[in-house]
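Field guide to reading this record: the first block holds the primary sequence, the second block holds the structure written as discrete tokens, and the final block holds curator observations. Each block starts with its own label. This record concerns Acetyltransferase, catalogued under organism Psychrobacter nivimaris.

BLOCK 1 — SEQUENCE
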Amino acid sequence: MSSNINTDHFNKESVFLREATLEDIGALEQLLNCCYRETAGWTNEADLIGGIRTTPAELAAVINEPNHYYFVYPKTTTGDRDGDETGEILGCIAVDIKTDAASNKKAYIGMFAVHPVLQGKGVGNVILQAAETFADRHLQSLNQPSRLTMSILSHRPELLAYYQRRGYQFNGNKMPFPNDGNNGEPKRDDLELLELEKVVS
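BLOCK 2 — STRUCTURE
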């Protein structure tokens, strides 16, 4: 994945999001597989899971799903919203509005990635905060408490700590990593997905 991004004068205040379109699929696939399956950046899972993170078909399904909102941070010629997009995606995050058995709705946050060159510069914080604000407003409009959930891999204490600093807590729900080949091949047998939850007041 190209990394010709000038970060010398990078300003996280210039980060902006728009909803993903089907035209973004190629760039999204490249970003997600780079961030999760290669060794660049601190968020990768390369030592825990092999194979690909996502496919064009999965991304198309997410983008086309009415209750699934997928946001991207596109690279532009000027580095801000006013520039022309180059076709590269620098960050992304999805908000999936789910309904549980009791007809309560909550927002599931997933497919979160930041280009490795921009990691550690506050970009992820800006993107996550924007997704949380969107989810909170959406759930409040439905007269539902704003419960945000996400799943992270076990054996990633640094990632758990990152989300705990942002108000997420492990809620006790966990499941074995799905070994169906659709999300990569686990490199160890004891991998689990831990569910984190945050209530926005």
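BLOCK 3 — OBSERVATIONS
The mean pLDDT is 82.
Strands lie at 18-19, 49-50, 68-76, 85-99, 105-114, 146-153, 169-176, 185-186, 192-200.
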